[in-house]
Every structure is written in structure tokens, then in C-alpha cells.
Amino acid sequence: MRLAVLLLMVPVTALLATVWLPFVNAPHIWLGxxxxxxxxxxxxxxxTPALAYVEYQSTRRRNGGGE
Length: 67
Fold this sequence. Notes:
Elements lengths: L1 H15 L12 E2 L2 E2 H28 L5
Helix pairs in contact: 1-2
């Protein structure tokens, strides 16, 4: 379960650090969108499988097959 939580912390930290990262918080265009929007969309998409993995591990642990 610790691995699942650590895995979840990567996209969460990246999203929270968005405003302090100079290469993201600048007037650049990435893939036709502002860099901050592209960065956020990418990490939100990465957050979905991380949350699914946490839920899978949680359900597995409740059903007795945990770590």
C-alpha cells in the first residue's frame, strides 16, 4: 500500500509545483496550448491510473489478498 501512495504522490506533487516551475510558468506554447495547461492536463491524465492503482490495492487488501 505504501508503494501505491508514493506512486500517487508523484502527479500530485507535480500539479502542486506547477506555479513554481519556471519552464512551465512561462509564456510558451506546447502542443498548441499554453505550457501550464499542457502540463496540468498531462499530469491529470497520469493521475487517473495512479488513483486506479491505489483503489485496486485498497480493494485487494480489504478482500484479504493484501501485502
